[in-house]
## 1
Amino acid sequence: MDLYACPDVPMVLAPGERALVPTGLAMEIPDGYEGQVRPRSGLALRLGLGMVNAPGTIDSDYRGEVGVLLINLGQDEVTVNPGDRIAQLVITPVVQARLVEVGELSPTRRGEGGFGHTGRGRKKGHG
């Protein structure tokens, strides 16, 4: 669902500035679920407006107002007006992992290769 800005007055974000934009919404998310606040691609493309922590998480035990932490990554000021669509919200199940300490991890083809490691040395269509 779309999330809309609900500030008392328009908010102006200078280039590089970030702000917590209120939505006017509070919600009760059931146990076992979370809200994921995601940026809007159109705002990023047109205005350079993104989210600092994307996706943001709304835990099921949070009861306060939902805010969206926006950042102006563009070169011009951006005005966020009351009623502007500023983000999207997805409610999704959460799986709680149970961590188990082990002495050794099972081997994989990738191993400890980090950023950009997957896909190296592979021919197109082979993996």
Note: The chain has a mean pLDDT of 92.
## 2
Amino acid sequence: MIDTERIEKAVREILLAIGEDPDREGLKDTPKRVAKMYKEVLAGYDDSPENHSVLFTERYDEMIIVKDIPFFSMCEHHMLPFFGKIHIAYIPGEDRVTGLSKLARIADVYAKRLQLQERMTEQIASAIMEKFNAKGVMVVVEAQHLCMIMRGVKKPGSFTITSAIKGMLRKEPTRTEALFLIKGGK
């Protein structure tokens, strides 16, 4: 889906637009490198949660949490990176659990696209509810946005936290337990 040739041409145009010589030694291969980088960091466009929807028969109806999943994404407003950690809690449904790595892979499907953190959080939670027929899901995303750190208001050290909570995890005390465990029991 990602047209690397077109990206290369666009990057060459950007270099010309800022007054650079795209044929000088240090920039000669930059359009190709940038196109390759976009193909890698935006690989979520060529992927789908269906590719990572594996379930195993297992009688387990308690909460499962995978926390501190590192992610890198690109803000759709400025095409600058935002990055941080994703925490996923879910309660399996119908005596079926998924492989833990599948949770991180589904997060990557959505993180590796031009994104808004709020949308990404919701997409991850919805995919886990649907694909794994979960009884409940909580996704918490903590991120730093380069569009806030290196430009605009220039506020290094600021974090944005978003959450999406569905099903049984919306109810107390399950919600409180999930947040407590995500915070490391502190």
Note: Residues 117-131 form the longest helix (15 residues).
